Amino acid sequence: QRLNNRQFKELLSELESEYGDLVYHCEVRWLSRSNMLARFYTLREEVKHFMEMKGKPVMELSDGKFLSDLAFMVDITKHLSELNIKLQGPNQLVSSLLSNTTDDPNLENQLRVASSSLPADIRCLSKEKQFQPSH
């Protein structure tokens, strides 16, 4: 495992990547999971290249749908992490916690924009909601 880590760091250095390494699970205590996920997303091409060099390709890193879902998850976890930090401030009252979640003028718009880029699965929707003409 240390050999792979060293080789991956060397590859990132050769490619002049923005980051010098991935963050590993045991190092996440001080770094939020959303930041770890964002860093993985940023390094996805380097990770893909490294795994291919090792003879263990990760097919999901070539799948557009998976990458779109991953990007959406990165955005959502970032927003949830920011909201979580807002809610952890000192002397928070329930009323102020509720206003933080419901009065954010950008949150609703950001969620609408993010969800509008998701393709609707008409087959799934039609199974769940049966069309019934009015009488």
TrEMBL record:
Tell me what this protein is called. Protein ZBED8
